[in-house]
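Take a sample.
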Amino acid sequence: MSNPLDMSGKVVLVTGGGKGVGRGISSRFLAAGADVVICGRNPPETLPSAGGRTAAFLAADIREVEQIDRLIGSTIERLGRLDVLVNNAGGTPVAAAASASPRFSEAIIRLNLIAPLNCAQRANAVMQAQADGGVIINIASVSGIRPSPGTAAYGAAKAGLLNLTQTLAVEWAPKVRVNAVTAGMIRTEQSQLHYGDAAGVAAVAATVPLGRLGEPDDVGGVCLFLASPLAAYVSGASIVVHGGGERPAFLEAAKQTNG
């Protein structure tokens, strides 16, 4: 039997695919035989490589529609098609909702919701014209399905991205499948900015039922599945990749009280 996870001959575009979670996603698809294009405002120090393949980099600020058009156009010009788009680029600094400026909040929503919508729209136009359509995967966050103190605009944008995923799955079927991966706490090169030093990272990891933070490769594996024939009847879904979630705070409070 053929390997359903073999992506040979497939063209995959990963926004923000040169670092963090995006790099893990890019590496997974490269290892599976895909031709991978990554984008960002600046090139990474090293390009993702796996399975004897190396990703191609195209400079693009996905907040600008004209640059998205150039990105998609250059991908088609180089490789002739686009099979998978992974809307991974995003993020936010910490800012209290009470004091964040309107301009700041608008910028966060633009990067984490509007930009993925614009990328998906442009990719869909290409995929609808292909005989076998295509797949769009949005990288969401648990910040969009629970309170997100300190990152209110980000959480709201990611909640919107999940709704967008369901809507586009309806509008663009049957040619294009659209799904989301809702990521929990993932260990990246920026983990210490969020969780503190190594001891802080370890303490946070201990709160996860599976006993560790996720790795970029964990998210990449789910993306590979969603892009494969194994997920041929999966669209409009969100797969939560969070190691079992967060232990409810009341349990620890009750333990301390009763201890």
